[in-house]
Automatic annotation (TrEMBL):
This is Tim44-like domain-containing protein. PANTHER family: 39S RIBOSOMAL PROTEIN L45, MITOCHONDRIAL (PTHR28554), LARGE RIBOSOMAL SUBUNIT PROTEIN ML45 (PTHR28554:SF1). The keyword Transit peptide applies. Keywords: Mitochondrion, Transit peptide. Its main location: mitochondrion. GO terms for biological process: protein insertion into mitochondrial inner membrane from matrix. InterPro entries: Mba1 (IPR024621), mtLSU_mL45 (IPR051975), NTF2-like_dom_sf (IPR032710). It holds the Pfam family MBA1. It is found in: Mitochondrion. GO terms for cellular component: mitochondrial inner membrane. It comes from the Eukaryota.
């Protein structure tokens, strides 16, 4: 059920977006060097591996500074409106988390109901195509019900950054919000006599922790609506090592 997306080449569409101005893709991948602090069993322990612990901590600090600088640069690049401090791009951090939570709920509800038109509006191209395909593969007359049983803890903004496209007035903001919840997905199919029967194994409660990626693209310095890109996972030591190798090339 999760809208999981693989970590793809972050600059895949960024390099070609200037050639596709008419299309203006909504899915440019996960921005390069997006850092999600590992937690729980994924996080290195200080006494077990001091070097790994220090590496994660240092990357956490660097990423927070880098993310804030990227947003500041984006804000300064946007045209001023009635004075220096009022600009076209508004970096309203307080609205990001509740927006992501609302989109997360609407996305799964629309997927269950087979509401392709709503998914088209609130999802980036890649995850929309995945949802549309899965809806199309359902059995005829199949009914799907998604329920949010409860939130297990408050949502948390773990990444918020920006980047400019190689087009004047073109940019993107991406945010990652951690949402921990208990969900239930129930499937019903037609049995004998056309009566709906619950699919065995469905309808069970499941505790899920998701890192939901939402994004907002800007064209000619006009911001669009927030959309769901998909979900991602916590950053690993191997990924950090790969980042370091790429920077040295």
């Amino acid at each position: 059920m999760q809208a999981q997306r693989p970590r793809q080449a972050p600059d895949r569409s960024m390099r070609v977006v200037s050639k596709e101005m008419q299309k203006y893709p909504s899915d440019v991948g996960l921005l390069e060097y997006t850092f999600i602090t590992p937690t729980g069993s994924n996080a290195p322990r200080l006494f077990d591996s001091p070097s790994s612990f220090a590496k994660i901590r240092w990357e956490h600090v660097k990423s927070r500074v880098r993310d804030r600088v990227s947003l500041l640069v984006l804000w300064l690049a946007s045209p001023a409106k009635k004075g220096f401090f009022k600009r076209t791009i508004k970096l309203s951090r307080s609205n990001v988390t509740p927006t992501a939570v609302a989109l997360h709920r609407q996305m799964y509800t629309s997927f269950a109901e087979g509401d392709v038109s709503t998914l088209r509006k609130i999802c980036a191209d890649g995850i929309f195509d995945s949802f549309r395909s899965r809806i199309g593969n359902r059995q005829r007359g199949e009914k799907v019900v998604w329920e949010l049983v409860k939130y297990n803890k408050g949502p948390r903004l773990v990444s918020h950054r920006g980047a400019r496209f190689p087009i004047e007035g073109g940019a993107i903001r991406q945010a990652v919000v951690r949402i921990s919840s208990t969900q239930r997905l129930t499937r019903w199919i037609k049995g004998k006599g056309g009566i709906l029967e619950q699919v065995p194994g469905s309808g069970k409660e499941k505790t899920v922790e998701e890192y939901v990626v939402v994004q907002r693209t800007t064209e000619r310095w006009k911001e669009g609506d927030w959309q769901v890109w998909g979900t991602t996972s916590e950053t690993t030591l191997e990924e950090i090592t790969e980042w370091e190798r790429k920077k040295l090339e």
